[in-house]
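Report of the visiting student (M.T.), summer placement. My assignment was to run the structure pipeline on a short list of targets and document each run. The first record concerns DUF6377 domain-containing protein.
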Amino acid sequence: MKRLLFIIIYVLGSSTLSFPKSRGAEIDSLLRVLDKTIAKRTVYMSEKEQKIDEIKRLLKHEHSPEKRFQLNTRLISEYQSFICDSALGYIDRNIQLAKTLNNREFMDESRLRLAFVLSISGLFTQASEVFGGIEYNALPHHLKVFYCWGYIRYNENLIKYTDHPKYEAVHIREIARYRDTLMNLLGKESDTYLKEKSFKLKAEGAFEASAEIQTELFKREQVDSHGYAMAAMGLSMIHKELGNQSLQEKYLLLAAITDVRLAVKENESLLTLAIYLYEQGEVDRAYNYIQAALDDANFYNSRFRNAVIARTQPKIEAMYLAKIEQQRKNLRSYALAISVFLIVLVVTLYFLYKQIKTVSRAKRNLNTINEQLVSVNQRLDEANLIRERYIGYYINQCAVYLDKLDEFRKTVNRKIKAGQLDELQKLSVSMATLEKDAQELYTDFDSTFLEVYPDFVEEFNALLREDERYVLKKDHLNTELRIFALIRLGITDVNQIATFLRYSIQTIYNYKSKVKGKAAVDIDHFEEKVKKIGTFPVR
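After the run finished, the structure tokens were exported:
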């Protein structure tokens, strides 16, 4: 049995079922927060839609083309990370407004926004055409900044989309060229300049310096803002290069939590986190997060994100399904092990039940024997008491009768010597002495018997009808009670009873019948009940 239990425990213990491993209190806490945040995505989407609806209400009552352009720009900012097609729709409206107003600056700004949204949605050819159609040198300073910033993002997305070393080098050179141009356009104390400097240092391998700048920028960002999510994502990528896995994971989680709360559907953080957890063997969460990232990409209509997800999702899904299958196999093993255990348990319980029944039967037999022994001991105790009392009584009686015989002998001898033959004859004929001796014998018998059974008369009366009960002098029995007293002492022979009481056998029978006629109990068992009067209590 012990061996079997050991085998079952070993099988259960050696399971390949994976349980979430502890990754530190802070990371575990952030993972739980992210899970709860993803579960409330519909709430955050509703908040986002309410914000957009408020801008739309303002737009509905606005008639100034310039102000409508500004409100459309606000809607584009909200939609460009939420719903791609809606963002493109409002960009087209602004392009039309720019044409109506014949405003070159409005037109260039709208086309740059169009290029940016096209690039993040995966329409890279169209984005390239828009960039190519914009005359960079004719742009005002702030739009040149916007152009360089958008073109850098365009090339970064292309690297991720193509995922090919041959083309990656070309895009890296373009990013470096336009980053230098952008930094020359910016003030060295501006946040945008510091961000691009951090990215440049990272590209050059100066990860510590890059991390220092990014950490300072992260501290400046407001929690739950888009800038906070972007700064956290940047820090995560730098700490990845530094090999600091815990900080990489921490900032990646902060970025993902913030993106979900802001209802950012074009987000990189959740997809990056899913891939990271997949590489760490966290299949369950990786599967859940990549499914959420795919839902977001489909909601946004991002061809770019879908393409990136398509390269990773099958691997994660395959591992997830393999894990499910392994769990199913393990469950079958568990079921088999538990079934064997239950069978052994049932068999063990069966034999245990039989053993208990045997023990129980033996205990009952032992109890019966003990009861019999108690009964025998009671009778022995009772017999010993009777023996002690009556031996003393009869020794005393023998001594008394020896004295009487000796006195009778002396009286006879005196009368013979004195020649008193008539007196001697009268003495031998007289019954008075005999009756007196018999009465003394019965009196002594009654006294001795009631010493042994003091409640005999009371208990005997309980066997009789109330109107037939005996009322006697203290320590005295009548003839009927003496008969049943002898029966109580175990003398059941009618001849012996008749001899002792100096009656005929028939007279004894008559007395017994008379008494039984007064009984309040079953006559057939009357004598048995008499024999139990004064029985010693069970000890």
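Confidence is low (pLDDT under 50) at residues 14-20. DSSP finds 23 helices and no strands in the chain. I thank the supervising group for their guidance throughout the placement.
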